[in-house]
Amino acid sequence: MTVLLEVKELQKYFSPPMLRAVDGVSFTVRKGETLGIVGESGCGKSTLGRVILRLLDPSGGQIFYNGKNITGLNSRQMLPYRKKMQIVFQDPAGALNPKLTIGRALGETLRVHRLAEGRKEVEEKVVSLLSLVGMGSEHLDRYPHQFSGGQRQRIVLARALAVQPELMVCDEPVSALDVSIQAQIMNLLAELQETLGLSYIFIAHNLSVVKHISDRIAVMYLGKIVELADKQSLFQNPRHPYTQALLSAVPVADPQLRRKRIILSGEVPSPLNPPSGCRFRTRCPHAFDRCAREEPILRQTASNHQTACHLGSGPT
Ligand code: SF4
Ligand code: MG
């Protein structure tokens, strides 16, 4: 599959004081695939999503879109890429202007981007956008507060799709919704991907959410990717102790496949003052001396599987 997005050693530091929110992250996203990014709150995953879209400037590293280095582009040069890459956030209420009917909100997006002109064409396109997300034209004259959370997230998706993006960064798009509605939105995202050939970066704080939709999954801890693998490999054979702990919390129907729950001790340390060596060592049940001295790098541990851990990596 063709690579659509590549990030190399991406960094985002906030200062003062020095907070390394994203600290040397590399991965690719291929056309039509979903990369899940998972980690506890504060691990840098949302910052990463914003840096990729250049909503925040990176402090270091590079971003390539379709082979083109977009890291240093100014906002005018970024315009065509802003259409190709869209972001959808957790809170669909805050993303919509409460004073505009959704017909007008979607129509305005189409007009601003010159994707439709004249009342009739705009209305037709708005109606087809709504139908893409499973909503009928009877909703055109209603305001955001008149919709449920799930419907609002559909509208936000329709607006993102208006500009015909290729890559969507979905930052916890279902976390604020009821469980039954979450499944509907996840199914819709999967359908849209299929129909439109979209690529997704899907950000979530637990593995259950990204399980079905992802092709590959990156696990983040304190600004770094600690494991990156094909979904199947990650679920069947997690090698990083942090991934193992996250996975042990995922509910499994089949009792034979159930894992013993691994409870991590302590809290995630402050990113202002991460532990030396392996950042996970203060909570790792397998930590040994080398872990405090030396930072593990992400290395190939199986085909389509990379892990950043000293366990099993041979002597120093
Ligand atoms: Fe645990 Fe050491 Fe591996 Fe870090 S490098 S995850 S502390 S065993
Ligand atoms: Mg977040």
From TrEMBL:
Molecular function GO terms recorded: ATP binding; ATP hydrolysis activity
Coiled coil segments of this chain: none
Family: Belongs to the ABC transporter superfamily.
Protein name: Oligopeptide/dipeptide ABC transporter, ATPase subunit
InterPro entries to which the protein is assigned, alphabetical: AAA+_ATPase (IPR003593), ABC_transp_ATP-bind (IPR050319), ABC_transporter-like_ATP-bd (IPR003439), ABC_transporter-like_CS (IPR017871), Oligopep_ABC_C (IPR013563), P-loop_NTPase (IPR027417)
Domain spans labelled ABC transporter: 5-247
The organism's place on the tree of life at top rank: Bacteria
Alphabetical list of PROSITE patterns matching this protein: ABC_TRANSPORTER_1, ABC_TRANSPORTER_2
Organism: Dethiobacter alkaliphilus AHT 1
NCBIfam families: oligo_HPY
Keywords: ATP-binding, Nucleotide-binding, Transport
Presence of keyword Nucleotide-binding: yes
Taxonomic classification: Bacteria, Bacillati, Bacillota, Dethiobacteria, Dethiobacterales
GO BP field: peptide transport; transmembrane transport
